[in-house]
Specification:
With 170 residues, this protein is an alpha+beta fold. The chain contains two helices and nine strands, in the order αββββββββαβ. It has a six-stranded mixed sheet, with no helix packed on it. A three-stranded antiparallel sheet has the order 1-3-6, with no helix packed on it. β4 and β5 form a beta hairpin. It is globular and about 45 Å long. The relative contact order is 0.22.
Length: 170
């Protein structure tokens, strides 16, 4: 009987750990795979479908930042969203044209507030990181907030982070 209880408790503990993984994925590409041309500057330049699971219970909103870490010494942000509603679990393909209500768009590397798909400055393979932050607050609207400023603001409010990585070359 004692052995059975230990096994049951072990399974429950393992299940709760697995159930708690905050994940971000896309039906268009898997983690660390090539991003389809449709979602790039060589295609239709629309945002890929994204979905997430197991956000913390006390999430008030989400922040999504898409960046390329290997363009050079500067951070290159291609899409910044904040105040994504906490009951939202996905962004459909082309969501950059139809964002959920209350969602705000921050500045990009190009100093404006819109979506830019992967578009390397050369013919080399570049990496792109989609980072979703579950935070315990909503942010006051700030006209086209800079991503670095946004990250500084949300740092004390981050509950969990999920990442999806992809790559692209012309």
């Amino acid at each position: 009987m004692r052995s059975l209880m230990i096994i049951i408790l072990g399974l429950l503990a393992q299940t709760s750990v697995l159930a708690g993984d905050f994940t971000l994925k896309s039906s268009a590409f898997n983690n660390n795979e090539k991003i389809p041309i449709l979602y790039t500057c060589d295609g239709q330049n629309i945002s890929p479908p994204l979905s997430w699971t197991n956000a913390p219970a006390n999430t008030e909103s989400f922040v999504l930042i898409v960046a390329s870490p290997d363009w050079g010494p500067h951070k290159v942000y291609l899409w910044t969203l904040y105040n994504l509603p906490s009951d939202n679990k996905n962004l459909k393909e082309g969501a950059n044209k139809h964002l959920p209500e209350e969602t705000l768009v921050g500045k990009t590397f190009y100093n404006d507030a819109k979506y830019y798909g992967p578009c390397p400055p050369d013919n080399l393979l570049h990496h792109y990181v989609y980072t979703l932050y579950a935070i315990n607050t909503k942010l006051m609207p700030i006209d086209a907030m800079d991503p670095d400023e946004l990250l500084t603001k949300i740092k004390p409010n981050i509950l969990k982070t999920a990442e999806l990585r992809g790559s692209f070359s012309h």
